Each structure stands twice: as structure tokens, then as C-alpha cells.
């Protein structure tokens, strides 16, 4: 197979062969003219005599026979263990006494789906929910994020320092070893399934009134950007099964995930994982207020500047037609 530095393409090979076969050039003269070895010139000339112009194409480098290939019976055992137990190459290799790299090659050869593409309970390939336009489906969910004590918490400074920071704020009369509960922020998020454009707020709880009010603000935010929401997907949390949230949706169709299937709402789950890695626990915050102030800036960066792998490296705003502030 030709590579970027190959002196001969298919057209060059054909020209070389015709110079030798049809024009009567010597092999040495043709090799010097096309900057290749004499043996190379001879090979293409012979192939032209045998097959004509079609013989100038690349041939597969796969050997005609592979005497050391894994036996078919062993390959079937590997596939059977993968399908029935849904194990990875390492565990299958330990069970069958085969090197994990061999197991991996067998699985790849037969096109067996990766474990991360499968539903663990059923073994079926997880189908991705793809929408054709913005607003067709908006994913909504809540994530709890622990507050940061003054001076920083244990995640960045270590457990001993984090514990001391929490205990230093205890009230007089409290037990010395009793940790003060700092509380949580409830991160309410609505993300458009087509563009991944996200609206998110740090709120104090996940009650039905809070969820309903959040959706009203989120829907207005999407409408300001020309996105008309037609369907909303949530889990089966009590706040989303309430009459208050139903009334807030109005004519918008409400869909719920199957119980114990968070992957159905995977786009917003993945967003929460991203913000945990890139905002919540990305660096040392000395106070909770500092981290909260940083969230709005990070969210703007996510929507307008951060490349998204599912969007071909483009930010979510790139998929929203005529969105103002897209290049801010």
C-alpha cells in the first residue's frame, strides 16, 4: 500500500511499466527516471505484462495462510463468554488461559460491540437518542454538589485539612469530633439534545416548586435563542412527577426514563460529569462563593467556546441557527 512518501502512485507505476514494456526502456533507465530500485521497476513491469493497467493497484498485505492464528474452537469460546457473561478481554483471558491481547484481537475481528456500548442488564447495544433539530428533545435532571468550606475542602487539600476546616466552624458546645454538615447545591440542568446547548442553575433544593420554576426560566431562556421546546425528558424523581412540573410544561410533551435506566438521559448525565471534571473539582477553591461565581463563566465557555466531541469539535452554539453571542 502506498504511503505519503512513496515515489510511485498507481499512475506512476503505469507510466513506468509502459516505458519498459511498450517503449523498450531498460529496467535501469526506467528505475533512474522514476527514482526507484531496479527490482521495483521489474516488479511493476512484470505485473503490467500479466494483468495490464488493473495490476497497478495496491494488493492486500494479508498473508495467504496464517498457521499460528487462534483456532476456530477457541474463538467460539471467547465469543460465548463475552456474550453470556459480558466480560472484558482481561477476565476472558484469565478464564480461558489466553493472553488478553489475543482475546481483544478475536473480539475485534468478529466485530463484537464494546462493553461500553452495551446495556449491562440485557446485553443489548444501547441506542443513542439522536434528534434532527434543536428543541425536539430537551433533557432535564438534577445533580447534588457539596459546598466548599472556607479555606478549601478535603478533595483538594487532603482529608486531614478538609476535616479541620469543617471542624473549625463548629459552634461552641459541639462535640470536638463531630463534623459540621456543610450542605449541598442542587444543580438543575436543561440541555438540548441536538445542539447540547445547556441552561443550568445552582439552587437550594429539588422540590417540585423549585423544579417547576426552574423549567419556566429554562424554557424562556431557550425561547430567547429561537429554540421552541417540543419534548422534555426527565427521570422519575418526585419533583418531575408532580402537578406543579406538569403545569409548568403546559403543552410540551413530557417523557420519562425507564426506572433504573439513567443512561436513557445520558446527555445530561454526561454534562454533569463534564462539569464535575472541568468546574466543580478542577482546581482548588478557597470558598464556596468563589466556586459559584466561576460557574457562570464556565457555562458560557461550555456553550460558546468548548469543542464537543459529538459535534465534530464544534461548540454547542454552532448547532443553533442565528444564535446571538455565538462568537463572543
Automatic annotation (TrEMBL):
Q: Which GO terms describe its biological process?
A: DNA integration
Q: Where is the composition biased (Polar residues)?
A: 160-172
Q: Which InterPro entries match?
A: DNA-bd_IS481-type, Homeodomain-like_sf, Integrase_cat-core, IS481-like_transpos, RNaseH-like_sf, RNaseH_sf
- Gene Ontology MF terms in the entry: nucleic acid binding
Q: Which residues lie within the region annotated Disordered?
A: 52-73, 149-176
Q: Which domain of life is it from?
A: Bacteria
Against SUPFAM superfamilies, the record matches this protein to: Homeodomain-like, Ribonuclease H-like
Question: Could you identify this protein by its name?
Answer: IS481 family transposase
